[in-house]
Amino acid sequence: MPVDERATAPPSLRQRRRAAATREIVDAAELHITEHGPAALSLRAVARSLGMTVQALYHYFPSRDALVTELIVEAYDDLAAAVQTALDTVADDTDLPRLVVAAEGYRRWAVAHPERFQLLYGTPLRDYAAPVEGPTTQAMRRMSAIFQHELFGGFTAEQLAAADTPALSSPLRAHLAHLSPDDPGALPPPATALLLSAWGHMHGLVVLEVFGHTSFIGDHQAEIFRMGMRTMLTDIHSRIPAHVSR
Fold it and tell me: What is the Cα–Cα distance from 109 to 103, expressed in whole angstroms?
């Protein structure tokens, strides 16, 4: 068989069965998290819910960590998809800045999927360590790239480098400069500091809501969140000069 025919050959019956079984396991694990919380994730319980043994489950996921990694990647991908969908479907006549639209997509997903959000940002699972520079890191970066683009998309590297931020210490500036040394689109240190601050502001409000700490606001939490995001964006953009002298 020619190489190009092999490359386009449909999956075999065995591959399709394995993919279907893997999907069932992941879906069952997500349901278990939804019903019992991330900390209660148990391979034995997942296997029992599918009528299989733990030993059979190990044929698809060799360890608990492998299954947790898959669950985290899927949660990040679903969250990123929700944010992108919010941006893609926003009304043309809206006066909302796109960064605020993205942030609200993030909030809505988190509120709708609190247990999966806790898997990403709650108490770390005991004895779980994500693979270094593995799929969870890549999934997180895909999502953060969306926010970086919407926050700084209209500015040049020179403008971002001249952003008015509190003086960064030399060690911190050096650390921020080397976060992505091989990335030609890497942000200059002042912009990275602003991005992290914006992320903390947005994420902090969402965490407070998802974990029930702002329930006293009642049905007004979405309005408070929008106000906070608008104010944050105005402050950050006011720190970036409109023109930079060469």
Answer: 10
Split at pLDDT 50, 70, 90, the class of 1 is very low
Query: Which CATH number is 19's domain given?
Result: 1.10.10.60
In a domain, 157, yes or no: yes
67 located within any domain: no
Q: What is the DSSP string of the chain?
A: --HHHHHHPPPPHHHHHHHHHHHHHHHHHHHHHHHH-GGG--HHHHHHHTT--HHHHTTT-SSHHHHHHHHHHHHHHHHHHHHHHHHHT--TT--S-HHHHHHHHHHHHHHH-HHHHHHHHSSPPTT--PPTTSHHHHHHHHHHHHHHHHHHTT--HHHHHT---SPPPHHHHHHHHTSSTT-TTPPPHHHHHHHHHHHHHHHHHHHHHHTTTTGGGGGGHHHHHHHHHHHHHHHHHHTS-S----
Distance between alpha carbon 100 and the CA centroid of its chain, in Å?
16
pLDDT in tens, 116-166: 999 999 888 888 888 888 898 888 889 889 999 999 998 999 999 999 998
Domain that holds residue 17: 1-62
pLDDT beyond 70 at 243: yes
Backbone φ/ψ region at 125: left (φ over 0), alpha (ψ -120 to 50), beta: beta
